[in-house]
Amino acid sequence: MAMDASWAWGSLLPSPVVLLAIVCLLSAGLLYQVYLFALPKPIPGIPYNLHASKRLMGDIPDVRRSKHMRQWVWSQPRAHRAPLSQVFVLPFRRPTVIVTDYSAVVDILARRSREFDRGQRIREIVGLIAPEFHFTMETKEEGFKAHKELVRDLMTPRFLNEVSSPRIYDAFAALVHLWHEKSTKAMGQPFCASHDLYMTTLDSICSVAFGLDESKRSLTREIDHVRSLPMPPASPAPGPQVSPVISDAAPVEFSRPEPNPEIEALLDIPEMLSISQKSGFPWIAQRLALLRPKHARAMRNRQSLIDTQTENSLKRLFAGGEKEMQCALDWMLWREMGKAKKEERAPDFHSPVIRDETFGFLLGGHDTSATVLSWWVKYMAEHPHVQARLRAELRNGHSVAMMEGRWPAMEGIISTHIPYLEAVVQETLRCASIVTLISRTTTQDAQVLGYHIPKDTSILLSLTGPGLTEPSLDVPTTPNLGTKPSTSQTNSPPPWDNADVHLFRPERWLKADEEKGIEVFDSRAGPILAFSTGPRGCFGRRLGEMQLKTAVTLLIWNFEFGSTGPLGGMEIKEKFVNMPRDCYVRLKET
Ligand code: HEM
Predict the structure, then answer these.
(1) Which residue has a Cα nearest atom 21 of ligand 1?
(2) CATH for 153-381+538-589, among 3.40.50.2300, 1.10.630.10, 1.20.1070.10, 3.40.190.10?
(3) CA 505, CA 526: separation in Å to the nearest integer?
(4) Each residue of 417-448: pLDDT tens digit?
(5) Mutational pocket test of ligand 1: of 359, 424, 538, the residue with most ligand atoms within 8 Å of the beta carbon
(6) In angstroms, what is the C-alpha Rg of the chain?
(7) Is the CB of 435 under 6 A from ligand 1?
(8) pLDDT tens digits along 288-324
């Protein structure tokens, strides 16, 4: 019986082949379920690319194939003829919603900051560089207020005028000296300007942030280096040379001095940002980058730089108190001293918060200011009539300096109101549109222009494109989608004329003051979002504007910017911000 029974069970078992087939089918079924689970999950009702929703990598292959990734992203709503769309650019994560409608963007930034907070993306990108910088924090986060309190006074007119402005002036005056040397040696040929603007802005921001000694400033080394170069036609080796002139438009290549370790460490900041920004997994990308000696050394050197600068600051403060204040770091240490005393505790002068808020000046203010200036020199070369009018207005405004045959002093630059200068700076910021997308996350379910966006969705808001630098979107108004926030509702400025919105035209920012019979600068002439807006808009705006005004005044006062021919194209290069691909100047002393 027992034998019979075992035979009966054995006959019921499937053959190995059938068993294998069943296992394969089950595995395939399971894999298919995993595949379906991992596919992008569009948010109902928001337009998207259908083909991208059917592949694991979503829109990523299209983004990679595009010439400019960020431009591809902010152009998506226009491609869908809608003010919003969604893209699948973060693998295995929820879709990202793009908003390009100017009024909706302003509404979100300025009035709905509770529903749309900073989110995690910036924290991931800034990551290891300055984790305690308030830029990375959510507004509702504990500690955010304390960070803002620490930096609160650094953009007041008093701090800007007394502490920041002389440092800014020195940095850009050094650039004028450098360009005098270079233009003499270039003998009318163009030369690269982006590096010089980049290093000058670094000097300016570092001096304001932590008071870099003159001997350590990059421009001091650059000027000494260029002075040491022979005049062209260059004598053959040995020694540094100015390359021989090849043709009319060929740029003169100036060799560069080796940066010192401190400067090298600071220049590593935008590099690290760029590494994490390009990656779908920024945290891992930064950790891997730190395995390379170059980045690891830079991180160590940054720490020792801030330690040294902190010691220098403390010596100053202990010796002279508040009146010895020379930079933002001094100010933050002074505040910490006062706060510690009040709270009856020992001050923490080397706290990561003070360190990261100091580096925050560089993170927020270096690439941004340098890049706006790089675009500005290009616009000047392309628009000689703007340049000529600007120079005339500056000479008229600073008539005493003109009569005395000197440059305008910093006090004069601060106190003299020159509408055309403000218009040129504003138009440069608008056209350059160096920050194109900023991120937010929904803290609760939200409605934007009638579209439903679930809680915890990543949002990218466009600071460029339709309505700002391109003709506005002709958005069909679908009744069940609701209407745009109207101009009156958002108190927006009037829209730009679609016919000339793409042109560089500073005059658009001027209006007649009928009563006084003069032209005045009108900051509300039309839409601009170069510094973003609302409670989390650019913290350093005033400092940025002061740098731009100072640089523009000193450079136009001293130089005429000639056409650089084929080097003058407006092609962009997407780094941390949108830079011009080429930035050359051909200078004539005025
Ligand atoms: C022309 C130069 C500059 C431009 C175009 C610019 C633009 C911007 C933009 C678009 C944002 C994003 C705001 C948002 O997410 O809503 C921002 C944020 C910020 N910027 Fe600037 N910026 C400039 C200069 C500076 C300077 C000189 C500093 C120096 C301190 C600075 C510090 C910051 C900080 C700290 C934030 C973060 C604010 C927050 O999260 O609350 N920026 N900037």
Answers:
(1) 538
(2) 1.10.630.10
(3) 12
(4) 999 999 999 999 999 999 999 999 999 999 99
(5) 538
(6) 28
(7) yes
(8) 999 999 999 999 999 999 999 999 999 999 998 777 8
